[in-house]
């Protein structure tokens, strides 16, 4: 092996996953070492190791390299081929096996990376072995070789798209809803494969859905727009197509199809908080019908307060967490929560191994829409009683000092403050709240706020930002 010592894995190993620039911070060589370390650290010699990847040009080579490293250390590799991230979670849950999916989610084409899961779809993060895998892989790279074990692992291949589609359909029955026209923007990502299987008739019987496809061609160079629906400009094609086709709803997925954004029939976005509230209502009702007294719903602290209010109204118990999927998944397991939602359009389900799946959330929205006659804009209005600011970033040199300053100025009588994740200040009257959260990777403080009306939201937002931006 040549030049392996020049690869520094700390550049690509993040808190929750691995992401790097192909050929620079992530290479086939480094991936091979990670495959070996994955088996070593998680004790997977003689056990099944799932390996799949998305449509990025480098994914096939990386899948092959990871499989080689894993087999060299005795892991029995099952190659899954092209998969979405939630297909890995499905496989890890159903087959009780650890695995990896090669993806860089919504990052540009020059990136790739790895999301890892233990058996049962338990996430592998910095708290649960990711950095140990990094360090073991770095040792192999520095040594220039991966020592083979006595028994090299086996290699098999399998496909699971039809089984994954059938599993999701078993959780939400769409067969009896009214006919709906649905525009889906796959962004040239993996939803181009999963949508026809789950919502169409590519693998199973047709549902009462007419799918209008937008950018379903799998193309990891993303020729039409970045596969990041969190950015408003990346939703414009979908919004226009919903109006043009007279559709009932629009769905946008990110590159690895684990997040889903919803557009109403007018072409307007439905906030992820509203989707969280809508799905929470359905999951509470279902859990209660199954005999659960007080179903638990998880939400992060910058989700609309409409979520915990609705959960309480419907007889559930809302539990707030920090932002970040490893926190949500951990609390989902601790609380045996039936559902969890984030402002970033990640949705977690107990019936999906506490993992996130954008497709299952989309199916719940389709069911809620199709089980009644009102348009989505009317339905969503129930779940959006407050006015949100959206996320606003400000460049700040000393983030901790600035949060202290804001707390001194705004955490006055008549308010309640929290330091669970950054700084949250809420009016005791319930009229407004805001959160300032430091970015872990950039010199930003991120502002999110919400109020009873637009004037109050704008006033609080402008007063806080005036302090933050000096």
TrEMBL record:
Q: Does the keyword Isomerase apply?
A: yes
Q: Which SUPFAM superfamilies match?
A: Phosphoglucomutase, C-terminal domain, Phosphoglucomutase, first 3 domains
What residues does the Alpha-D-phosphohexomutase C-terminal domain cover?
A: 391-466
**From what superkingdom does this record's organism come?**
Bacteria
Listed name of the protein: Phosphomannomutase
Keywords of the record, alphabetical order, are: Isomerase, Magnesium, Metal-binding, Phosphoprotein
User: Where is each Alpha-D-phosphohexomutase alpha/beta/alpha domain found?
Assistant: 12-135, 163-267, 275-386
Report the family membership: Belongs to the phosphohexose mutase family.
- The EC code for this enzyme is 5.4.2.8
Name the GO terms of the biological process aspect.
carbohydrate metabolic process
Q: List, alphabetically, the Pfam families matched.
A: PGM_PMM_I, PGM_PMM_II, PGM_PMM_III, PGM_PMM_IV
Enumerate the cofactors the protein uses. Answer: Mg(2+)
Q: Name one GO molecular function term.
A: metal ion binding
